[in-house]
TrEMBL record:
Belongs to the adenylate kinase family. This is Adenylate kinase. PROSITE patterns: ADENYLATE_KINASE. One of its GO terms (molecular function) is AMP kinase activity. Its EC number is 2.7.4.3. PANTHER family: NUCLEOTIDE KINASE. The lineage of its organism: Bacteria, Pseudomonadati, Bacteroidota, Flavobacteriia, Flavobacteriales. CDD domains: ADK (cd01428), PRTases_typeI (cd06223). AMP binds at residues 211, 216, 237-239, 265-268, 272, 313, 325. NCBIfam families: PRK00279.1-3 (NF001381), PRK14527.1 (NF011100), PRK14528.1 (NF011101), PRK14531.1 (NF011104), PRK14532.1 (NF011105). Pathway: Purine metabolism; AMP biosynthesis via salvage pathway; AMP from ADP: step 1/1. The keyword Ribosomal protein does not apply. Residues 210-239 are annotated as: NMP. It comes from Mariniflexile jejuense.
Amino acid sequence: MIKLHDKYFKPFISAKEIDKAMTRMATEIANDIGDEIPVFIGILNGSFMVVSDFVKKYPKPCEVTFIKLASYEGVKSTEDIQRLIGLTQDLTGRTVVVLEDIIDTGNTLAEVHRIFKNEQVKSLKIATLFYKPEAYKKDYKLHYIGIEIPNKFIVGYGLDYDGLGRNIPEVYQIKETQYMTNLVLFGPPGAGKGTQAEFLKEKYNLVHISTGDVFRFNIKNETALGMLAKSYMDKGALVPDQVTIDMLEAEVEKNTDANGFIFDGFPRTNAQAKALDVLMQSKDSSISAMIALEVDDEILVQRLIGRGKTSGRADDADESIIRNRIKEYYDKTAILKDYYSAQNKYFGVDGVGSVEDITIRLSNAIDKL
Ligand code: 5GP
Ligand code: MG
């Protein structure tokens, strides 16, 4: 992974793959052109590296020149193309091949065609190393295409992000999500998980995804996933993990600009933990840590009995029910503790003390991630 200015990029296309595509294009173009001497025209700035490597691979005599256009601001293409250096030589009767680094919307290409409209060239061919078919909005034929890529911002091999990255010999793609702190939060009943989640959310600007809330939201709003989940619940069957994961994915997608997520109530099994890893990976991210509040059983029992007296919650009134819930918690989370420990991602935090003290302990653990 690399960082340019404020953004993170991941390796996407290796120098070797680029070289292969370039060789293929040079051979193809040489075969089509035959013995004529073509003029290759690079579009500056981006295509300097493409042109340099291309002409070295071109097996026959050729001429090279450049025009300079600019259309990009940051990571977005703009309609407004500036012609900074136009054609500086007469191309009447010549076979011209425009060499582009990348064709995205095609706005730059439209400007290229405007430039050539009044030139009496013999033929005008367009070659591009990279092409984003989903972004392309024009009808101009692309005669030679190196590599088709998805509609995501890339850097390297001549391509920049606000000036940086042009010198990198391979191509990097922008990360779907930027750097994130993703926490799986655990705590036995009575450990104060809800209070602490609220605090963590504020302090680290995280999105709290409570699986229970997500379920209730989807069912209440009768989303497709909500209805699907309900159909299992109505039969008294367990909702398949994939349905839950799909709901969580929707939550993650709503918040790709977040600094990260607090997963609460999920995962509960090894299979779910793996599925969550896969989901985060598909978003170019990962789970940073499982944070578990640790509170001695006797203290939990006392806290819950105390809470039962004031709240009147039936499940907080009976000591044996309470002990059973605590036991169940440990039975279920032990597997996850092992799962995340194996990746050095388990952090137990002492959950006894004042709310502020626990908060400080949690922050200390998170700040070290
Ligand atoms: P278009 O005019 O086809 O939308 O975009 C062409 C120009 O935009 C390219 O020559 C390049 O300068 C810039 N561009 C398009 N897509 C990308 C990209 O993914 N990364 C970078 N760095 N520049 C791009
Ligand atoms: Mg360009």
